[in-house]
Design goal:
Blueprint (H helix, E strand, L loop, with lengths): L12 E3 L8 H7 L11 H16 L5 E4 L3 H12 L5 E5 L3 H12 L3 E5 L20 H10 L5 E7 L1 E2 L4 E2 L2 H10 L5 E5 L18 E5 L11 E5 L1 H9 L9 H8 L10 H17 L1 H22 L15 E5 L6 H12 L1 E5 L8 E5 L6 H17 L8 H11 L11
Parallel strand pairs: 1-12, 3-4, 3-5, 5-8, 8-9
Antiparallel strand pairs: 2-10, 6-7, 9-10, 11-13, 12-13
Helix pairs in contact: 1-9, 2-9, 5-6, 9-10, 10-12, 10-13, 11-12, 12-13
Bound molecules: pyridoxal-5'-phosphate.
């Protein structure tokens, strides 16, 4: 075995915004013996996860489950619906939106990147990476496209690199207001099962998600939730596809089976995750993340450090990006916190590398584990010589004490 437990006691704090900490219940489910994926028991497992995940996406339409990371499901969304040279509009809210655009270009699509057009006085280098998708910009662009050359609009719901959750319903309204037939594709890899998400109601054509965030599973499975229009588009789409093809998948899924070897043990984990999430109730799950996020922001505000997301309407319930003061390298800070306190924090990606760190508040966490995380951050910041205006831990304790959780906790008779 690899020696991954470097500290003599206690548990490592994995507070990156995915992979998120995996509950013991799910780890136990995953450790069950692998079964024949073409055998008699498997079909029931397949049907259970395929229907359960529809509830989480809030869709009545099929959801495809790939044995792949989220990047695979990005590719699945594009290659099943588009043809070489098709023009797509992709809105850059951060690192992951830009990586999806890079993939689309590699696949031979004609990509038009759109970005927030304002000016950020505090952080000019990061302006567009501090805000959500501006639906009016999309509407204006689509209105100009009278020939309907634009085949798809692609946006990221929860931008994991910045901690911004875009308003997807507003993007659907923009497309409808422009009376444009473009497909709407949404990456909710780090949003699903942590933040309210409504595939059908918001008229999303392909939703892309992954296992290692709100679903609290290890990395390794990812999803495409489809709409009837996406299925129709897949009939005529000409980008080459084999592994990612929806048609073979959907045919096999009818009886709960897969066209190739699925990630059987992760599907055990998914079945357990769905049981947990649906027993708690999705509304409670979302409220839990909102509450954690509010406590973490109270801490960051007490420290008097800027939050990467500059628009309070789109603060992410999943993670908070914290900008370090000039001269304080965020990666050095993270290294110190990791070495001293056994706590992993998310790094700044792309153009914000070294200038910010990310606190994940998702997965198998609770109020006290988040307070410990904030304590690790606070001690690390002080050790780096940062003068903090006040204690963030105190502020978060105040928040938690004043706001009861909505999910039922254990009661002593
Ligand atoms: N999109 C978002 C929003 C993500 O957060 C990630 C990963 O963190 C990806 C895409 C890429 O997914 P993966 O790393 O699972 O391939």
């Amino acid at each position: 075995m690899l020696d991954l437990d470097f500290h003599p006691s206690g548990r490592h704090f994995l507070q990156i915004p995915g992979p998120s900490p995996v509950p013991d219940r799910i780890l136990r489910a995953i450790s069950l013996p692998t079964i024949d994926h073409r055998g008699p028991e498997f079909g029931a497992l397949g049907l259970k996860v395929l229907t359960g995940i529809q509830t989480v996406f809030r869709t009545r339409h099929p959801v495809v489950i790939y044995p792949a990371s989220g990047t695979g499901a990005w590719e699945g969304a594009l290659v099943n619906t588009l043809s070489p040279g098709d023009h797509v509009v992709m809105y850059e809210t951060g690192h992951f939106a830009s990586l999806w655009a890079k993939m689309a270009t590699r696949l031979g699509l004609s990509v038009e990147l759109m970005e927030w057009s304002g000016e950020d006085k505090q952080l000019p280098h990061a302006g567009g990476w501090r805000r959500g998708v501006q639906a009016e910009q999309i509407e204006q662009r689509l209105r100009l496209d009278t020939q309907h050359r634009i085949k798809a609009v692609c946006v990221v719901h929860n931008e994991t690199s910045t901690g911004v959750t875009s308003d997807i319903a507003s993007v659907r309204r923009a497309i409808d207001a422009a009376r444009h037939p473009a497909l709407l594709m949404v990456d909710t890899i780090s949003g699903l099962a942590s933040v309210d998400y409504r595939h059908d109601e918001w008229g999303v054509d392909v939703s892309v998600a992954g296992s290692q965030k709100g679903l609290m599973l290890p990395p390794g499975i990812s999803f495409n939730a489809l709409s009837p229009r996406a299925l129709e588009a897949s009939q005529g789409a000409r980008l080459p596809r084999a592994f990612w093809a929806w048609d073979d998948m959907l045919a096999a899924n009818k009886n709960g089976y897969f066209p190739y070897t699925p990630n059987t043990n992760l599907l055990y984990g998914l079945a357990e995750s769905l049981d947990m999430l649906l027993a708690e109730g999705l509304e409670n799950v979302f409220a839990r993340h909102q509450r954690w996020a509010a406590a973490v922001r109270a801490a960051v505000q007490a420290w008097d450090l800027p939050i990467q997301c500059a628009d309070a309407r789109v603060y992410s319930p999943v993670l908070t990006g914290v900008i370090t003061p000039p001269g304080v390298d965020a990666d050095e800070l993270r290294r110190l916190i990791y070495e001293r306190f056994d706590l992993s924090l998310g790094m700044g990606l792309g153009k914000v590398k070294g200038r910010m760190f990310r606190i994940g508040h998702l997965g198998d966490s609770n109020d006290l584990s988040l307070l410990a995380t904030l304590a690790g951050c606070e001690m690390g910041l002080r050790l780096m010589g940062v003068e903090l205006a006040a204690s963030g831990v105190q502020a978060a304790m105040g928040y938690f004490s004043a706001h009861r959780p909505s999910s039922a906790l254990r009661k002593v008779a």
